[in-house]
Amino acid sequence: MKGTTVKKKAFLATLAAGAMLVSLAACSSGGDSGEGDGGLVGVAMPTKSSERWINDGNAVKEQLEAEGFTVDLQYAEDDIPMQVSQIENMITKGAKALIVASIDGTTLTSVLQDAADADIPVIAYDRLIRDTENVNYYASFDNFKVGQQQAWSLLNGLGLVELDGTPIEGAPAGPFNVELFAGSLDDNNAFFFYDGAMDVLQPLIDAKTIVVKSGQTDIEQVATLRWDGEEAQSRMENILTSTYSDGSVVNGVLSPYDGISRGIISALEGSGYTVGPEWPAISGQDAELDSVKAIVAGEQYGTIFKDTRKLAEVAVSMTLALLNGDEPEINNTEDYDNGVKVVDSYLLDSSIVIKDNITEELVDTGYWTQAEIDG
After folding, report:
1. Contact predicate 361/156, CB 8 Å
2. Most buried among 93, 138, 148, 165, by the most CB within 10 A?
3. What is the tens place of the pLDDT at every residue in 166-210?
4. Is 193 exposed, middle or buried (0-12, 13-18, 19+ CB in 10 A)?
5. Per-residue pLDDT reduced to its tens digit, 28-38
6. Cα 3 from chain centroid (whole Å)
7. Residue 60 and residue 142: Cα distance in Å, rounded?
């Protein structure tokens, strides 16, 4: 992403070394994060309906507990008032820090003022919290690049580019019919993903190599509230009925999340598409197990792997630094403007997973076992 800078020294020599540094910091700090008596940290996650958020919550909780903290981990099931109430309760219980993956990043202004009044630092976890000065740091991935990777995986499935975006010599000229999906408009990441994807796709749309036959290209037209797979399925069904009843076919679908991808797959199957040479290339994100299985089956072309274990390490390291009176390491000071201030951030890298590299990316790294994928 443009404008990335490094503040102070490099964040960690490696994430493995980072885990060691986190442990040392916890053992040497006493008081707030002393061994076995670090105090309470509140962790607010949006929903258990996504496998991804379950993995995130578990990873953060386990790593905080390993550093001696008591953890109040709560899931709000995409209910905004519930999440606000959960955070209020964490503050009342005396949480020393809050790690928050928001449902709607614009709805926490009041409760985070309460946190600030109680001198409780707040780390925005993967989703930027907007419209408040009371967010201290942001831990996430390079979300613009994630969007680019989604587009590259889609184009790789069409035979147009390598996974790193390099054009393939002798690639087909097209045109390819591609439909576009974006995430939820109340999630700041949705805009970064879509902007990154369109940075890649728009030149091909302009060159008519890609045709969005429905004409729906504005993010407001293609957004999916709460990243809901059923809503994506309904919209895809409507597109197929309204735009492709003339016998034309969809060649590819830009999807920003695996749950949305599975909804799209259901719509295609319901409209008579069958897996084979004419099946559309469909992107995704989060390497959820059901979608990894769908990639193996040829239903989904690719997904973006964002290792939640590494993101948890960053959030825990930030928490320890703040509670020790230190300044967390960051690598981006320009790109994440929440409407009130630019939030200092640490961004991790992600990777593209397709059928050919599932073992290397997901099994060898211990994220999923082969038995889980085969099951």
Report:
1. no
2. 138
3. 999 999 999 999 999 999 999 999 999 999 999 999 999 999 999
4. buried
5. 333 333 334 68
6. 20
7. 19
**Residue type, position 260, single letter:** I
pTM of the model: 0.87
Q: Which two tokens stand for residue 4?
A: 């990335």
Of the candidates 101, 41, 108, the residue with the CA atom closest to the CA atom of residue 75: 101
- Which residue matches tokens 């005396």? 94
Q: Angle 188-206/143-157 helices, nearest 10 degrees?
A: 40
Is residue 35 classed as helix, strand or coil in its secondary structure? coil
Question: Going by C-beta distance under 8 Å and a sequence separation of 6 or more, which residues neighbour residue 234?
Answer: 263, 267
Strands 351-354 and 345-348: unpaired
Q: In what order do the strands lie in the sheet with 176-180?
A: 210-211, 176-180, 252-254, 281-282
Alpha-carbon Rg of the chain, whole angstroms? 21
Backbone φ and ψ of 294, nearest 5°? -65, -35
Q: What's the rounded Cα separation, in Å, for the pair 162 and 176? A: 17
